[in-house]
TrEMBL record:
Keywords: Cell cycle, Cell division, GTP-binding, Magnesium, Metal-binding, Nucleotide-binding, Septation. One of its GO terms (molecular function) is metal ion binding. Belongs to the TRAFAC class TrmE-Era-EngA-EngB-Septin-like GTPase superfamily. EngB GTPase family. Gene3D superfamilies: P-loop containing nucleotide triphosphate hydrolases (3.40.50.300). InterPro entries: G_ENGB_dom, GTP-bd, GTP-bd_ribosome_bio_YsxC, P-loop_NTPase. Necessary for normal cell division and for the maintenance of normal septation. This is Probable GTP-binding protein EngB. The keyword Nucleotide-binding applies. The keyword Transmembrane helix does not apply. Residues 22-197 form the EngB-type G domain. NCBIfam families: GTPase_YsxC. It comes from the Bacteria. It comes from Chryseobacterium jejuense.
Amino acid sequence: MIIKTAEFVKSSGKWQECPEPNIPEYAFIGRSNVGKSSLINAMMNHKDLAKTSGTPGKTQLINHFLVNENWYLTDLPGYGYAKVSKVQRKDFEKLITNYILNRRNLVNLFVLVDSRHTPQKIDLEFIQWCGESGIPFSIVFTKADKLKPNVVIKNVEDYKTELHKTWEDLPELYVTSAEKKEGGDKILDFIQKTNEFLTNNNISFDE
């Protein structure tokens, strides 16, 4: 997919405030500081489309971007903040779950996982919740440039082994590096093919 246009639409504090759900939408989520904004910017070939920060928990609203004037890319707040109050954390969790469960044009959720770490309980629990909730999702390993390729491969295999304990079939897996702009093209290819499928089959999101 060639990115011709990518523009910020709005930030929403409630899922009901999100833009009209009339075109395909693909959301990105992950633990705080997983490199979500950097990956989005690399994919969109835009230095500061999504706001990056060294402070975990910077994204606290649902941010919508219109891409090529025919699909939404959604930047969701991270889960599992360490540096916010329990009340704030519950508010974020409510915002995220309500959006994911109620947004009828959400085609796929990309769950970002830091490739440098062994399988984390919080990521595994979130992935399990997606499965139990019937949410279409993919797993995206980030920051692959921070490790030697063989270590990345091992960490991904460890994740697959862990997931196979409860999953028979695994979702699509992507290995990415925002720094080297690697892997994002495969995600965009998936989005393009999915959008073409929706168009060819006259699938609409109108109620």
